[in-house]
């Protein structure tokens, strides 16, 4: 939703936005949508089409209702799962049933040893992303929405990363 804050004040045709039901909306986006049209609601696991791409909303763990999205085209699948703390069992099961080429997810924290502390956050730590990769059996997982401490930790632990488990960066293209 971050880019939507800037887009809403654009000019031109209205932009349809698929979003979960949320009475409060994201901050004041629903109250002051500008050119954004929030009339289309996303329901968990109810796919819709955009051009030739099948898009499926996937529930995430966050402080408020939040969805990730899986994009499928020509037998290839990428799941964009940001703003989550681990994954709900239903989302993990959905991903496991498919051949997922890429999962792109947030990782705001380096490994957190205390499980209570880890689970009290709204974003993943390295352990949670490793668990997602293992449970979902995706080909590759890319980490984004990186906290500064994650980057420092990654510099100190380069052996933890590979082509199948990598930090993503601005401008990077993800091949499908």
From TrEMBL:
InterPro entries: Metallo-B-lactamas, RibonucZ/Hydroxyglut_hydro. It comes from Vibrio maritimus. Pfam families: Lactamase_B_2. This is Metal-dependent hydrolases. The keyword Ubl conjugation does not apply. SUPFAM superfamilies: Metallo-hydrolase/oxidoreductase (SSF56281). Coiled coil: none annotated. Keywords: Hydrolase. GO terms for molecular function: hydrolase activity. Residues 43-145 form the Metallo-beta-lactamase domain.
């Amino acid at each position: 939703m971050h880019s939507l804050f800037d887009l809403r004040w654009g000019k031109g045709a209205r932009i349809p936005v698929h979003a979960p039901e949320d009475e409060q909306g994201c901050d004041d986006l629903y109250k002051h949508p500008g050119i954004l049209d929030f009339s289309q609601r996303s329901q968990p696991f109810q796919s819709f089409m955009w051009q030739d791409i099948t898009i499926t909303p996937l529930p995430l763990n966050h402080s408020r209702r939040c969805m990730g999205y899986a994009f499928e085209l020509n037998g290839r699948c990428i799941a964009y799962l940001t703003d989550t703390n681990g994954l709900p069992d239903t989302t993990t099961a959905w991903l496991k049933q498919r051949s997922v080429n890429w999962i792109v997810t947030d990782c705001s924290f380096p490994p957190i040893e205390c499980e209570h502390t880890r689970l009290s956050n709204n974003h993943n730590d390295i352990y949670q992303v490793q668990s997602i990769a293992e449970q979902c059996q995706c080909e590759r997982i890319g980490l984004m929405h990186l906290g500064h401490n994650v980057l420092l930790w990654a510099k100190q632990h380069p052996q933890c990363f590979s082509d199948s488990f990598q930090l993503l960066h601005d401008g990077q293209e993800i091949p499908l």
